[in-house]
Structure formats: C-alpha cells, structure tokens
Design a protein that fits this description.
Length: about 120
C-alpha cells in the first residue's frame, strides 16, 4: 500500500517540478530583445483598428463550464451502469435523484441562457 502512495507522491512531485524547470530553462535561453515593432499589437500583418483589448461575452465561458460540469457528471454514470445489477434498489434511487439534479441544473442553465452562443 505504501508503494501506491510513493508512486502518487513521485508523480505529484514530477508534475509540480517539471513545469517550473521548463519555464526556468525557457526564460534563461530565450532571446530578450524588445523592440517597438515587436511590442505592437499584431493583426495578420495589418495595423490594428480600434482598441486591441475587447471584452468577450461571458456566455462562451458559461457554455464551457456547463459542458465540463455535465461531462464530468456523465462520467459518473458509466461505473454505475456497469455494476447496476449488483447494487440493488438503493443505488437505483440514488441515481434517480442524481439524474433529477442533473436535469434541474440543465433546465436552469437553459433558462439563464448559458447554452446560447449569440
């Protein structure tokens, strides 16, 4: 059992250290030659028209968050479906409640307009 914890700890340490090392190496090796032309906003080789910083509608982010939430919740259905016969009536009632919560959340997101692109 301690081997499993050691493997997870080693993987976690690797996941933390690797990005730090890569960013440090890039910052040391990358050329640092700022120039007025390099610091301007780039729009396909044309001079930018108007402000470069524009606001995005939050609906795009809400759409992504709702998709991710429902995607993760749908993943929970797969193991339940595989062991459905072994779990019994209590698991069926639990999953029914879970599905009701999903449907209510989907209805609320739809009502608030989080699923509309434009």
């Amino acid at each position: 059992m301690s081997d499993n914890f050691a493997a997870v700890g080693l993987l976690f340490a690797f996941a933390v250290v690797l990005p730090i090392v890569v960013m440090a190496v890039v910052s040391l090796l990358a050329p640092h030659k700022p120039h007025r032309e390099k610091l301007t906003t780039y729009e396909c080789g044309n001079e930018p028209i108007g402000r470069a910083w524009i606001g995005f509608k939050s609906n795009y982010f809400l759409y992504a968050i709702v998709f991710t939430a429902f995607d993760v919740e749908t993943i929970f259905l797969y193991p339940w479906a595989l062991t459905f016969r072994k779990l019994g009536a209590f698991a069926f009632v639990e999953m029914f409640i879970f599905m009701i919560i999903l449907i209510v959340g989907f209805w609320y997101a739809w009502k608030e307009g989080a699923l509309e692109w434009m």
